[in-house]
């Protein structure tokens, strides 16, 4: 009997092996520099990230959840206390909101893109809302400019959670440059991944940048003088900054490879009942294709068939935020049908740039064989 070859859902070792020499050289450079935090690597990464995004500035922080927390703190208007967001984006914003001392509330998502839009946000904007956090979920940069206009009209700040969307770009700008702040995670599986944790805030003004820089270091305005309430320790270390500098120039190529893989999975669904499996599109540079998302009204059965063919799947994310015990007290009064339906239908297929063409074909063949 031939053994069923398994396609990995992700395999970080492949990228580390590819980048091994550069990563070791960068490690030596950091060790030789004598700097561990806030040194030359960190300063260069902040500059290079801002240049890549065509943004005015970028502020390194310890991870993507801290980036959200500090961004929310830095832009929340005086007297407001509610953060409006989507409930299908993994609860990172809910976590950051509660840590910032505010209250999360939820708007429904668009049934097609599964992201917040002007249409879904405008009905949910009450006077208490101070910040809207739009997650560019799965890598898709929607009409963030229109969301910004709506927020400006209502005196609300917009934060873009770009943890899954680095490199997503429209003619009027990169993801992270439409809001009052954009946030990134460099968790190892992200499209730009560190070898550890990392994150960044892209501020829309020098004032917001200064607040985030203070908040990431104890609220200090100078050494040992905490001038701003709500400060914390959230620094991106020199090693991670050095590693990220190696990979930043590779992101656009990785994103294209991710889109190409999703296109092949979509081709494989030709002729299938869309209720059985529909792979969401990730076409064009406005989509960073972080995850290969499919929908199925028979999800458990489809996952079992794929598992039988050696294809692991996952669910991003299985529960709306308010169905998780930590956030149950924020459950919305009304039904948010597109959010709840998505949570029971979505599944994620293997997707990372180092997947081989043979593995992509193995997944595609398993999709074609679904019944
Ligand atoms: C959409 C989204 N936002 C925020 C985060 C939080 O990032 P981190 O894990 O670096 O805290 C993640 C990933 O983990 C994410 O996928």
From TrEMBL:
Keyword field? Aminotransferase, Pyridoxal phosphate, Transferase
Output the superkingdom of the source species.
Answer: Bacteria
Q: Does the keyword Transferase apply?
A: yes
On whether Nucleotide-binding is a keyword of this UniProt record, the answer is: no
Molecular function as annotated in GO? transaminase activity
| Family named by the database record | Belongs to the DegT/DnrJ/EryC1 family.
User: PANTHER family, alphabetically?
Assistant: 3-OXO-GLUCOSE-6-PHOSPHATE:GLUTAMATE AMINOTRANSFERASE (PTHR30244:SF36), TRANSAMINASE (PTHR30244)
Protein name per the record: DegT/DnrJ/EryC1/StrS family aminotransferase
């Amino acid at each position: 009997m031939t053994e069923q070859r398994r396609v990995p859902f992700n395999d970080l070792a492949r990228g580390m092996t590819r980048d091994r020499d550069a990563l070791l050289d960068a490690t030596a450079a950091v060790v030789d520099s004598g700097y561990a935090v806030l040194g030359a690597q960190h300063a260069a990464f902040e500059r290079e990230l801002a240049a890549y995004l065509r943004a005015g500035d970028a502020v390194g922080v310890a991870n993507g959840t801290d980036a959200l927390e500090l961004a929310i703190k830095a832009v929340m208007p005086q007297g407001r206390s509610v953060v409006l967001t989507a409930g299908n984006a993994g609860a990172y914003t809910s976590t950051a909101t509660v840590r910032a001392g505010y209250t999360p509330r939820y708007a429904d998502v668009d049934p097609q893109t599964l992201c917040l839009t002007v249409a879904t946000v405008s009905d949910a904007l009450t006077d208490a809302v101070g910040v809207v956090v739009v997650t560019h979920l799965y890598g898709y940069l929607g009409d963030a400019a229109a969301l910004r206009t709506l927020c400006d009209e209502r005196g609300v700040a917009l934060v873009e959670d770009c943890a899954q969307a680095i490199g997503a770009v429209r003619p009027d700008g990169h993801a992270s440059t439409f809001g009052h702040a954009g946030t990134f995670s460099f968790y190892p599986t992200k499209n730009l991944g560190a070898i550890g944790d990392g994150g960044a805030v892209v501020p829309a003004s020098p004032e917001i940048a200064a607040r985030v820089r203070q908040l990431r270091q104890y609220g200090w305005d100078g050494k040992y003088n905490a001038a701003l309430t709500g400060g914390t320790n959230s620094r991106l270390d020199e090693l991670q900054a050095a590693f990220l500098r190696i990979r930043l120039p590779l992101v656009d190529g990785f994103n294209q490879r991710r889109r190409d893989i999703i296109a092949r999975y979509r081709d494989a669904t030709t002729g299938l009942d869309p209720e059985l499996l529909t792979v969401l599109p990730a076409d064009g540079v406005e989509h960073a294709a972080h995850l290969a998302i499919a929908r199925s009204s028979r999800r458990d059965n489809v996952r079992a068939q794929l598992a039988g063919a050696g294809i692991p799947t996952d669910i991003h994310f299985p529960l709306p935020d308010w169905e998780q015990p930590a956030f149950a007290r924020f459950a919305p009064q009304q039904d948010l049908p597109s959010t709840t339906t998505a949570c029971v239908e979505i599944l994620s297929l293997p997707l990372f740039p180092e997947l081989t063409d043979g593995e992509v074909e193995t997944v595609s063949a398993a999709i074609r064989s679904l019944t």
